[in-house]
Amino acid sequence: MTNLELVLERAESLLKRLELYLPIPPENPDWKKVIACRWRRASGRGYLQPVTIPDTINIRDLSAIDEQKKLVDMNTRQFVASLPANNVLLTGSKGTGKSSLIKALLNKYYKKNLRLIEVDKTDLHELPEVIDLISELPYRFVIFCDDLSFGSDDEGYKTLKVALDGSIATTSENILIYATSNRRHLLPEYMSENLETTYKGEEIHAGENVEEKISLSERFGLWVHFDAFSQDEYVNIASYWVKKLAGDVYQMDDHIKRRSLQWALERGSRSGRVAYQFAKNEVGARQLREITKSVSR
Q1: Cα separations (Å) of 186 from 52, 58, 125, 194, 207?
Q2: What is the rounded CA–CA span in Å between residue 24 and residue 20?
Q3: Which of 57, 108, 127, 252 has a CB 3.0–4.6 Å from the CB of 163, allowing a cystine?
């Protein structure tokens, strides 16, 4: 045996021993049983991690966004019916139901083979790998990017641009991207960039930096904006959740309404999220008092 053959044999033996200590790569999910996954990394490779306890939010639970629900629901219905549909960008105030609407639509259409994969902003450069894993499967996949925004020097948005519409290869027809953001153009905007604007007659031409930022959001075919809730809308949402969590035992009287407004004032927001948090605190505290009273008797 030559020295080279001896070295190769020892190297192969060493690799076999090392494999015993390496974690077993996770298997691909069984999409018949799994409706949602997160993209994760382990042992130097990406994989789809099943969401074992998905959010059970129902589309009926979302109030004061009827027009937004109608738009995104119609697009999703087209998608699950294998009809032309658009990538969707949901923008606007925090806590107004952008992410909840996407999860509610998954719960509505998963029996029609809709599935969801959540990809963090930091993993967007791995989108091509995610797409390769699912493009041939007999399901309709929404790739979900939540709370999406990029810094002025963040290059991750370029990968998203290519995935949306910019590669030499056409995106698989069974995949759409739904993203939420507080920013309409996903990137910060600066006053200095407005100085780049030029005028030719009556035409206004934005500068290159502004055009670059707009070009990303324009690749989403459907834009859906969510406005902040009015006081009445906030109170109605809080009332709905109090009633639902309490099982119709408690009603939203004037005293509880005042507490819900105080709760929002302390948090500086009248969002649906804050209304839900108030309802959990209100109903939970009341139920705990009732349990304590019954035990002390």
Answers
A1: 30, 28, 16, 17, 17
A2: 9
A3: 127
